[in-house]
Design brief:
265 residues, alpha/beta, Rossmann fold, seven-stranded mixed beta sheet, two-stranded antiparallel ribbon, LmbE-like_dom_sf, GlcNAc_PI_deacetylase-related, zinc, hydrolase activity, acting on carbon-nitrogen (but not peptide) bonds, in linear amides
């Protein structure tokens, strides 16, 4: 039986890093996959050629559509908010400036339209702590309540595995000076919290294409970005690092699941 998955993310490119393999796997199995981004990512870091004209948000939404095509996504939705940025006063039309209820109403409308059975969001700390990611966690939880969505999966990474992967990557690529390993040592989720571990090795080409679609986010005026480092990892090391994706379902009881749709009618 086919189901509908709605993958909810804060910015274009977040889907590539956290859920793209799961999305590609679901689409390949005949399930309907809908990608929703809360913001346009217009305050993201990128080289001047991508942002100096004020068009970074529009460019990133275009990159999002190319990523979606690579994954077999059936529909892409932008909730209409601007990027809140990492710090400082957020724009008045940003996700953080809006109320949780307003954003949840917009997302719930999509969940209702799609009769979604599974919704992905983020863990309570928003992964590495970006305020838009934290807000996505709260918006998704409320939207699921409003729409009666059966299952909400918090996309995450076992933090010990992440730190080990980043250290391995540092042996073949020098991260920018601004990269702070300590941030990731406190980020995401403990391994014991993981409830769903999804093997996406067979869809690794789609995942890599999804990452590559976000060309602006692999650039900077003074060097590369983390995404560029990931794309330079040679295969099969890339496959080893990115061949699984992880989720936390606070309602899950039992052993770690291998299928996000398991147990649904």
């Amino acid at each position: 039986m086919s189901h509908t998955l709605v993958a909810f993310h804060a910015h274009p490119d977040d889907e590539a890093l956290l859920t793209s393999g799961t999305m590609a796997k679901a689409a390949a199995a005949g399930h309907r996959v809908v990608l929703v981004t809360a913001t346009d990512g217009g305050l993201g870091l990128a080289a001047g050629e991508f942002r100096d004209d004020g068009g970074l948000g529009a460019r990133r939404l275009g990159e999002l559509r190319r990523s979606a095509d690579a994954l077999g996504v059936a529909r892409v939705v932008h909730l209409g908010y601007a990027d809140s940025g990492m710090d400082g006063d957020p724009p008045t039309n940003s996700l953080v400036a809006a109320s949780v209820e307003d954003a949840a109403d917009r997302l719930a409308a999509v969940l209702d339209e799609e009769h979604a059975e599974v919704l992905t969001s983020y863990d309570p700390q928003g992964g590495y702590g970006h305020r838009d990611h934290v807000r996505v966690h709260h918006v998704a939880a409320r939207a699921a309540e409003l729409a009666g969505t059966r299952r909400v999966l918090q996309a995450t990474v076992p933090r010990d595995l992440l730190v080990n992967a980043l250290k391995a990557t540092s042996k073949v690529y020098k991260f920018p000076d601004a990269f702070d390993m300590e941030v990731y040592e406190r980020a995401f989720s403990a391994r014991a919290q993981i409830t769903h571990r999804i093997d996406v090795h067979r869809h690794i080409a789609a995942k890599r294409a999804s990452m590559a679609a976000h060309a602006s986010q692999a650039t900077a005026d003074d060097g590369d970005r983390t995404l560029a480092a990931f794309l330079r990892i040679p295969r099969p090391l890339y496959d080893l690092v990115f061949g699984r994706e992880w989720f936390v379902d606070p309602q899950h009881d039992g052993p770690v699941a291998r299928d996000i749709f398991a147990g649904l009618p």
